[in-house]
Amino acid sequence: MTITEILARNARLTPDAIALIEITPSKNLRRSVTWKEFDDNANRVANALVERGIKKGDVVIHLMMNSTKWLEAYFGILKSGAMAAPLNFRFISRQIKYCVDIAAPKIMILDQDFTERVEEIRGKMPTIKKYIFVGEKPPRGMEAYDEVLAKSSPEPPDVILSGEDDAGLYFTSGTTGDPKATLLCHRSLEHVAVNENYSHRETRKDCFLLIQPLYHTGGKMHWFGSFIAGGRAVMTTGGERITAKLILETIAREKITLCMLLVPWLQDIVTALDKGDLKLSDYDISSLRLVHSGAQPIPPVLVRRFLKHFTNIDYEENYGLTESAGPCMHLGLENIHKLGSMGYPRLNLDARVVDNDGNDVPIGTVGEMIMKGNQVMKCYYKNPEKTAETLKDGWLYTGDLVKQDEEGFIYYVDRKKDLIISGGENIFPVDLESVLIGQPKVKDVAIIGIPDDRYGEVVAAVVQPKDGVDLTEAEMRAYFEPQLPKYAWPRIILFGDVPRNPTGKIEKPKLRERYANLKWNPKG
User: Fold this and answer.
1) What confidence tens digit (pLDDT) does each residue in 302-319 have?
2) What is the rounded distance in angstroms from the CA atom of residue 327 to the CA atom of residue 325?
3) I want to staple 490 with a disulfide (CB 3.0 to 4.6 A). Which of 264, 393, 459, 468 is the partner?
4) Can you tell me the mean pLDDT for 89-112?
């Protein structure tokens, strides 16, 4: 079954059950959507698109902030037979046009948050023939979303989908360069849903807290486990600031049973509870049974601090890529003793650790992780050269350096592109970041390599102190030097903000650009 068929099934079996709850705490707003309303509106979107000439193989750009309408539009695009191309809501006009140039969409669905950005480039996107606008007062030449739906049929569109049909173009995060358009089919989305449900034992009684950016594969895919079982989801609207207080309040008020929390949110919750700014006893979180995290390396010390407060829940870690339709590895609920590992492949997936020639490396040796299975992308859209580099004999070369233990558990080491070679020594930034983040005054940290004539590269640490705290280079060195080999010591310590994308990944290209002209002076 495709995920569109699962939506239709849920609407048929439990039409009046709540599927989605949308909250806007800053405005004290809350609205709910039943499964029937969800499916009917998705059908209306699909029929409207078909009436406007959309057919299988076409692309519809999807540029909206988190909302129930985001999901209605997304499923409607899929039901029409088109490929959904959801874009990062942080993209500026130039990046939006870059994605449009690749995807060549015929229609764009956008909301009012993007009016100015889209109007700036509207005349430079000739493939887009229609614009559907979510919000009040559509710009000239754009159709109002609510009016479009009001005139469209809630009956299923006359479109037959198979698992091998193209479902979407998902642009990579761009943390290693320009975003690439990953082509996923309906089979990939279905298998993610099954894997999420199996891994987390989700049922119709579950309530999932959906606060990640929906354009990101992980944002939706983690929810799919609850979705496939007919459970409900509570989502914050785009623009709401995600705070520790908001998360705890929502868990208590909505009786959340499971949620996916990015590392910055885990840190915010732990810090607030440790400092006494928030008290867990003020919130009834008895409904909560599972928290899982991912999207970036997770310091085990942070998880242990978190679980000291949340003593009666299960904890899970995930690893995923856009190219694998999101989460493809997991720690497993029963493997908390393996904290620090990203676990092992999920159902219908396989993973190996190989050298530069594609040969398996010995246990405990660092190599590149490659994967194959039903979730893996078809290709990079319109990019055969990059596809050939990344997909070889059915294996997806992830670009991630890992090592495997005797029990098959895989441990993340670093991005292959982020590896620093200094004086012939391999230095993995994640290893250093996991040490430096332990300094009590540090809020965030990133390690990058700075070109050097003598050593090839030297290590630079970008340190973001906690708010209102003074932190010196001497304090940093006193903390990390006893814990690291001398060749791995950061030679340069820089104080400033550490940029992260909406999924929590460090945007190292931005840091390299910021410090492009920096040189190390060994004499100080």
Assistant:
1) 899 999 999 999 999 999
2) 7
3) 459
4) 93
Assess if residue 283 is contained within a domain. Answer: no
Q: What is the dihedral of CA 47, 50, 52, 54, to 10 degrees?
A: 140
Residue whose pair of structure tokens reads 């089979």 in the numeric block: 187
Return the amino acid letter for 33: V
Tell me the Ramachandran region of residue 224: left when phi exceeds 0, alpha when psi lies from -120 to 50, beta otherwise: alpha
Amino acid residing at 216: H
CA distances from 469 to 65, 265, 437, 443, 465 (A): 34, 20, 15, 10, 6
What is the pLDDT averaged over residues 458-479? 95
Strands of 252-354, DSSP E: 258-260, 290-293, 314-321, 326-330, 344-345, 349-354
Distances (CA, A) of 279 to 70, 244, 302: 34, 11, 18
DSSP 431: H
Position 386: which residue type?
Answer: K
Q: How far apart are CA 336 and CA 381, in angstroms?
A: 38
Percent above pLDDT 90 for the chain: 77
Domain closes at, from 182, 213, 240: 240
353 within some domain: yes
More confident residue, 177 or 408: 408
Q: Based on the fold, state whether residues 59 and 147 are members of the same structural domain.
A: yes
Q: How many residues does the chain have?
A: 524
Those residues with Cβ within 8 angstroms of residue 95's Cβ, 6 or more apart along the chain or in another chain: 88, 179
> In angstroms, rounded to a whole number, what is the distance separating the alpha carbons of residues 211 and 250?
11
**Shared-domain flag, residues 192 and 147:** yes
Strands 442-452 and 492-495, how do they pair? Answer: unpaired
Which one, of 413, 390, 391, lies nearest residue 402 by Cα? 413
Domain termination site, one of 418, 452, 487 = 418
Q: What is the pLDDT of residue 175?
A: 43
DSSP state of 138: P
Flag whether 275 is in a domain.
no
Q: Where are the beta strands (DSSP E) in 434-484?
A: 442-452, 456-465
Q: How many domains does the chain have?
A: 3
Q: CA 18 to CA 207: how far, in whole Å? A: 10
Predicted confidence band at 178 (pLDDT cuts at 50, 70, 90)?
low
Q: What is the pTM of this model?
A: 0.85
Q: In the prediction, which pLDDT does 432 show?
A: 92
Cα 250 to the chain's mean position, in Å? 21
Rounded Cα distance between 67 and 136, Å, is 15
Q: What residue has token string 């479009």? A: 148
What are the start-end ranges of the H helices in 81-139? Answer: 93-103, 115-121
Residue range of the domain that includes 86: 3-240
Looking at residue 406, what DSSP letter applies?
T
